[in-house]
Design brief:
Chain A: Pfam families: RGS (PF00615). The complex is a heterodimer of chains A (516) and B (358). By secondary structure, chain A is α+β, with helices and mostly antiparallel strands. Chain A has 18 helices and 14 strands. Chain B has 358 residues and is an alpha/beta fold. In chain B, β4, α10 and β5 form a beta-alpha-beta unit. The two termini of chain B are 39 Å apart. The chains are: A alpha+beta (516), B alpha/beta (358).
């Protein structure tokens, strides 16, 4: 085997050397949308903006966020007041139908508590609006923003709306209903999307395109991130030290569709190579197992409760002392999966096979599995779209699986989200390296990583040993080749790989990824 | 020119297109006297959209600053595409405003999408190149474009629409020209430093130009060694971004008056740059110049030299305090690399000579 790094993704030995990587904040590029959500990071950004005399943009953003929350409180107050009002309305209406006496008229002060609450919420909202207009919007304001016509439109809307303010807050005899209606009308005018229409987007745009690019290259930020450390940095920034497209993290919404595209294939190669925070959890003989220390969704890894915690990355690398042809035939045979990894393949079902089409450039299968890992655990549901292909540079086979949104089926089971990549790559004529990457949220009931480690540590050698055992049986202890006929191709892995060989002759996705 | 400069990873954070403020204190904080100090601070001033940042970007480029990061390129892609969308939006809005119907039904569909949902990522799809170009060529949009003095539109509109086939592609890589042509409104201040020989450094400071931005200028007037004031020749038929009822020329004259006669600048060299000469020459060929200046001889209005001479007088008349022998006047096309280089070199020489004289 060649020593050229580009030849094969990673031999087990080379992989183990990459475990220790020192965190350097300069390897990271801050992501705007994530950075402004983080309070501490915002504080640093503000310090920078102050120095470049553009802090009003961030101040506006923060005040707007507060305003937005106050508006939400108003909506809540109005709906609780409204529903209470509805209940009352029936009695009030029936009474006032009979006689509209003065006793049914309410002064603001004697209004019932839900109206009072609504009024109070509106008042708070108005105070915030007034302060924002005075600070940011009005011509010559102390921290006037620079948005042009949108800003002037906000100001004229404010002037019209503010004419109504004394009417809303002065003491007057209103029926509860009348007053609720007035407050509702006033509230619609104070709606941030109405009053400040377009301003937030414009401010964020200026911030993002003018000052932010300077901020992300500033020492102030790098020093700060260095101090905060790797976990924090990864929650708001992207590792760009290996090029921009290497650290790609997925959002839960990326795992909805039934398509596999080249981007996903490249992503698999990236995961294999990029090891920013692998923790070696298993290292014996020719088997290595790794788990990522941090999660791979944006946002912090707060592994509590049932919330989406982010995907964890597992990687295992091992060698099978059999040639690639035998290994590929063995894994293409559906029966064998039940032998070397019986748990994961429980209730395997092939649902569909699709030729390449307009939506998906690869042939794929749609399958499901329903493993129950432990008696006490709920059954999982693994809905998978799978494709396989032969890579001419690697001279080996790649199996790509992704989950999709299958929430209509098996509602009683816990659904798996994620990707799984397996690569079978020859290591000389008589051995095959297997790289498995599982990029998933397996939603185990235990939260502690150490338990996950233990389970994973146990799992990898079991599968590897299982494969060796099956291969020994099929080759009669390496005295013959594995037999193959198409009736064994229960997962269509063989068929898909051959189809892609014909469709994309001599193609190497690995080569293309290297050139990226 | 054309392709961008790409250098390998540059972890020092230097030589990026998006310059980093070089000092933590934008006021410079230098207590040295103007004489013999090692840093010469030059302020780029002028009203909004006079070309300060364009000149700043040009100076960055010809001091070897290129687009070095993938990430930077991605930021620039977004800015270019945002410019395309903003131009398209403004044009569509103008057709409604000016009551000019968009003629072709399919272009009306495109216009609807632009106003409602289109975002910069969508432009990766090459089909948008055709759709946007077809919209651009629509008789209604073209008519609105001819009347562009009536609304706000970037100077780069035509350039961007003519380059859609490159921009609307997932392979799009912004060129230096693209970066020079795109507009980003400057908020606050930015600076860069470069060596000018004799162990001296020139610190060039770029600022925002709209009214509220100008209030920030005063903060660093104290430490200035020279002022380069830009004004756009082609704004004679335009109104302000921040105040659509206000004539841009009037605003420029007013700002110029305030700056040039500021007591803090009495002793510093002052350069007045009439920018956008290229656009100006195109514009006066089709539009009347004398319509906007009652004192100008109508017979001369197609002669750019006469027009510029007139404008020069108009501006110099504003000078009541500053000694005229330390004021230099030049014309510029900041989007033109060679012209920028030459003019900036002259400006630099002028400033250095003046410094020496002191």
């Amino acid at each position: 085997m060649s020593n050229d790094d580009n030849d094969v993704p990673m031999t087990p030995r080379r992989a183990s050397r990459q475990v220790q990587t020192k965190f350097n904040s300069r390897d990271y590029a801050l992501v705007f949308e994530e950075a402004i959500k983080d309070k501490d990071c915002r504080a640093i950004f503000k310090r920078f903006l102050k120095k470049s005399r553009s802090e009003e943009l961030m101040q506006f953003y923060e005040e707007y966020t507060k305003y937005d929350e106050l508006f939400l409180e108003c909506l809540n107050a109005s709906s609780s007041g409204g529903s209470g009002g509805k209940g009352r309305r029936s009695t009030t209406t029936s009474k006032s139908d009979e006689d509209d006496t003065v006793s049914n008229r309410l002064s603001v002060n004697s209004a019932d508590s839900s109206t009072k609450l609504f009024r109070k919420a509106i008042q708070k909202l108005w105070i915030q609006a007034q302060s924002m207009i005075g600070r940011f919007i009005q011509q010559g304001a102390e921290h006037e923003i620079n948005i042009g016509s949108l800003q002037r439109m906000t100001f004229s809307r404010w002037q019209i709306l503010d004419d109504l303010t004394p009417v809303v807050f002065q003491e007057a005899n209103w029926t509860d209903n009348e007053y609720q209606t007035l407050l509702n009308v006033y509230q619609t005018k104070l709606d941030p999307n109405v009053l400040f229409e377009g301003l937030l987007i414009a401010v964020l745009q200026d911030l993002k395109h003018d000052q932010f690019p300077r901020f992300v290259r500033n020492d102030l930020l790098f020093d700060y991130l260095q101090k905060k450390g790797e976990v924090y940095t990864r929650a708001i920034a992207i590792n760009v030290s290996h090029g921009f497209n290497v650290d790609v993290r997925f959002q839960p919404s990326d795992l909805q569709s039934k398509v596999i595209d080249e981007k996903m294939i490249f992503f698999g190669f990236t995961l294999l190579q990029d090891t920013p925070d692998w923790e070696l959890i298993l290292d014996k003989d020719d088997i290595q197992g790794y788990m990522s220390k941090t999660s791979y969704f944006f946002g912090k890894d707060t592994s509590v409760g049932k919330e989406k915690k982010g995907l964890r990355l597992h990687k295992s690398v091992y060698t099978l002392p059999f040639c690639i042809e035998d290994v590929w035939k063995m894994v293409c045979n559906q029966e064998n999966h039940l032998k070397f990894d019986p748990k994961a393949n429980e209730e395997f079902k092939l649902r569909d096979f699709r030729e390449p089409n307009q939506d998906c450039e690869f042939a794929v299968t749609e399958t499901e599995m329903g493993p129950k890992f432990m008696p006490i655990m709920k059954r999982r549901h693994f809905p998978f779209i799978t494709t396989t292909f032969y890579d001419s540079r690697l001279k080996g086979y790649v199996v790509v699986c992704r989950s999709f949104n299958d929430s209509d089926n098996h509602t009683d089971r816990i659904h798996y989200d994620g990707f799984a990549y397996t690569m079978y790559i020859p290591n000389g004529d008589k051995a095959t390296n297997v790289f498995m990457i599982d990029y998933s949220d397996i939603k185990m009931p235990f939260k502690a990583a150490i338990l996950e480690n233990t389970a994973y540590k146990f799992h990898i050698p079991t599968v590897q040993k299982g494969m060796v055992k099956v291969l020994n049986e099929l080759t009669n202890n390496s005295t013959k080749n594995v037999e193959w006929n198409e009736s064994m191709d229960g997962r269509h892995w063989w068929k898909m790989a051959e189809l892609h060989k014909n469709r994309y002759p001599n193609k190497s996705w690995y080569d293309e990824w290297l050139k990226k | 020119m054309g392709n961008i400069v790409v250098s390998p990873h540059d972890k020092e954070g230097q030589h990026h297109m998006m310059a980093t403020p070089t000092s933590n204190n934008p006021n410079g904080g230098s207590a040295a006297t103007a004489k013999n100090k090692s840093e010469i601070t030059v302020l780029l001033l002028g009203a909004g959209e006079s070309g300060k940042s364009t000149l700043f970007k040009q100076v960055q480029f010809f001091h070897g600053v290129g687009i070095t990061h993938d990430q930077e390129r991605i930021e620039l892609i977004e800015i270019v595409r945002l410019n395309v969308l903003e131009n398209a939006k403004n044009l569509v809005a103008a057709t409604q405003h000016l009551n000019i119907p968009i003629e072709q039904p399919e272009n009306r569909e495109t216009a609807k999408l632009i106003i409602n949902s289109l975002n910069t990522n969508d432009l990766e799809d090459p089909s948008w190149s055709k759709r946007l170009y077809s919209l651009w060529k629509d008789a209604g949009i073209q008519k609105a474009y001819e009347n562009r003095e009536k609304f706000q539109l970037y100077d780069s509109t035509e350039y961007l629409f003519e380059n859609l086939d490159r921009i609307c592609s997932d392979k799009y890589v912004p060129t230096v020209v693209d970066v020079i042509r795109t507009r980003t409104k400057t908020i606050g201040i930015t600076d860069m430093k470069f060596d000018v020989g004799d162990g001296k450094q020139l610190r060039l400071v770029d600022v925002g130009g709209q009214r509220n931005e100008r209030r920030k200028w005063i903060h660093f007037f104290n430490t200035v060694d020279a002022v380069v004031f830009l004004t756009s020749l082609s704004e004679f038929d335009l109104n302000l971004y921040e105040d659509n009822g206000y004539w841009r020329v009037k605003e420029s004259l007013r700002v110029f008056n305030e700056v040039v006669n500021n007591a803090l600048f009495y002793k510093v060299p002052f350069v007045l740059l009439f920018n956008k000469r290229d656009l100006f020459e195109k514009k006066i060929a089709t539009k009347s110049f004398s319509k906007y200046f009652s004192g100008f001889n109508e017979a001369e209005e197609k002669n750019p030299v006469a027009c510029i001479e007139y404008m020069t007088k108009l501006f110099l008349n504003e000078i009541t305090e500053h000694p005229l022998d330390t004021v230099s006047v030049k014309t510029l096309s900041a989007i033109d690399h060679d012209n920028s280089k030459q003019v900036f070199e002259e400006v630099k020489q002028f400033i250095m000579t003046q410094q020496h004289r002191e």
